[in-house]
Design brief:
Blueprint lengths: L1 E3 L1 H4 L5 H15 L6 E4 L44 H9 L3 E7 L2 E2 H5 L11 H4 E2 L10 E4 L4 H17 L3 E5 L7 H18 L4 E4 L10 H7 L2 E3 L8 H14 L8 E3 L7 E2 L9 E2 L4 H13 L5 E2 L8 H7 L2 H8 L1 E13 L8 E12 L14 E7 L5 E6 L1 H4 L8 E5 L6 E2 L6 E3 L6 E6 L3 E9 L1
Parallel strand pairs: 1-2, 1-13, 2-3, 3-7, 7-8, 8-9, 9-10
Antiparallel strand pairs: 4-6, 5-6, 11-12, 14-15, 15-16, 16-22, 17-21, 18-19, 18-22, 20-21
Helix pairs in contact: 6-7, 9-10, 10-12
């Protein structure tokens, strides 16, 4: 659970902006589980600009071709200190510090044929000019059949570890799926962790067309992996994630997570790649949908909006303790209902939307924290149509056939934690096999509940 600078600042975030977000997170969101700050792409480009990348940019590198923060945007990095001072300030707030980096080796290092730290090799010898990023001009690939390629990643990760980096978002890894590069980066992290005794999380990006057949390899080499390309504040972007998360949710395990991408919530687009300066265009109901879906799918939660200038309503939404509770404390998560609803059942042209239901069982957290709803269950009733719809769900499909007649209470996970009473908008009606949960679900919205034995 954290913040990433991409949706707000694109390639241009500054040290002051990172620290402002860190202070807001520490003050308002840390108690709800938000704890990581990530500086996204091009922190080493002094010519970085909104809405795109710069070909032949004069990247800031050390004598071995390793990226250094631009000292104009990150003044504490001057004098070769790198991100060490900024990471220390973030750590003092009780938070973790992360950075983005591209797969491969900077083109400038290859053009200058800089030495690979700790070896007799040079950048030209280890570069792979045939496997370059399709959308970013900064780097060449690395030839993983050459021993100097692993040495270059080892040296890069050694520097990151010295700075105190906790989280690494490594881009251009999965589309195409560069298994040799992923494994090499994993080995470099392991070496740095052994040397410095400092754990680092590896997040792989982007995620277009990542097949679930890669899951064992991914679990062995990374903690997070994206399952889609970039997502923005458009309803169709969110709608597309239902199917992806339905594929991946049964494969989620503690410590290794399929990632449905950043949450475009709050104040975004200040100097971003896409769109103008704006508060998220998602409606309030769509914002609840994305959060509930990500939590029920146990996706990492990484918000993209500038926290100090986001609305109080956004911060309140992010501070909901149910987000961490369900993401960290649930099991057997998955989609159990998905039905296309037409106004006239035989007329596809009268399509209204999809009724989608997810369920999960309450479970203790991996760190031993007891579940807030031990012995209970979670359910999310989603409606993708434009207008509100009265929906129902067989109670036994969530709590089990043997438990359907037991007394159950409903808790609205968007509310104040109070129990929903009979006759309220979310309720249980009927008996036996006819016992159902009924609710009015907003357009593009969700009803998100916990069910507990009385």
């Amino acid at each position: 659970m954290g913040w990433n600078s991409w949706d707000s600042y694109g390639t241009t975030v500054t040290e002051d902006e990172v620290l402002a977000n860190a202070r807001t997170m520490a003050a308002e969101l840390k108690p709800a589980g938000w704890d990581t700050l990530v500086v996204d792409i091009a922190w080493y480009d002094p010519t970085a600009r909104a809405h795109g990348y710069n070909a032949n940019a004069p990247l800031v590198l050390d004598e071995y071709g390793r990226q250094l923060p631009d000292p104009v945007r990150f003044p504490s990095a001057a004098g070769g200190k790198g991100f060490g001072p900024l990471a220390e300030k973030v750590h003092e707030l009780g938070l973790k510090f992360g950075i983005h980096v591209m797969r491969g080796i900077p083109r400038i290092a290859v053009d200058k044929d800089l030495p690979v730290y700790g070896t007799e090799y040079t950048a030209k010898q280890v570069a792979d000019l045939d496997h370059v990023c399709r959308w970013n001009p900064d780097n060449y690939g690395l030839n993983q059949s050459h021993p100097g390629a692993q040495a270059w990643y080892d040296a890069q990760l050694d520097q990151f570890a010295q700075w105190g980096v906790d989280y690494l978002k490594v881009d251009d890894m999965q589309t195409p799926f560069y298994s040799e590069e992923i494994h090499a980066y994993h080995l470099a992290i392991e070496k740095a962790e052994r040397k410095y005794g400092h754990p680092m999380v590896l997040s792989l990006s982007p995620g277009g067309w990542v097949a679930t057949t890669h899951v064992d390899f991914l679990r062995n080499n990374a903690e997070l992996w994206r399952i889609s390309d970039d997502l923005w504040d458009k309803w169709l972007d969110i709608y597309a994630q239902f199917a992806r998360l339905a594929r991946w949710a049964p494969l989620q395990t503690n410590g290794h997570w399929a990632d449905a991408d950043m949450l475009p919530l709050g104040h975004i687009g200040l100097r971003a790649e896409r769109g103008d300066d704006r508060q998220s265009k998602l409606t309030a109901d769509e914002q609840r949908t994305i959060l509930a879906l990500w939590a029920m799918g146990r996706s990492p939660l990484m918000v993209g909006g500038d926290l100090p200038t986001s609305t109080p309503e956004t911060l309140k939404l992010l501070a909901n303790p149910a987000l961490r509770e369900v993401t960290a404390g649930s099991a057997n998560n998955g989609e159990i209902v998905r039905e296309r609803i037409n106004r006239h059942w035989s007329d596809d042209a009268s399509y209204l939307g999809d009724y989608i239901v997810w369920k999960a069982d309450a479970a203790d957290w991996a760190d031993g924290t007891a579940s807030a709803h031990a012995g209970g269950h979670y359910a999310a009733l989603f409606w993708t149509g434009d207008e509100p719809r009265e929906c129902e769900l067989a109670l036994q499909s969530v709590v089990g056939i043997d438990a359907r007649n037991e007394p159950w209470t409903l808790t609205d996970l968007w509310g104040d934690g109070g129990v929903a009473e009979a006759g309220s908008d979310v309720r249980i009606e009927g008996e036996g096999s006819d016992r159902v949960v009924k609710a009015t679900v907003p357009g593009h919205g969700v009803v998100w509940i916990a069910l507990d034995r009385r």
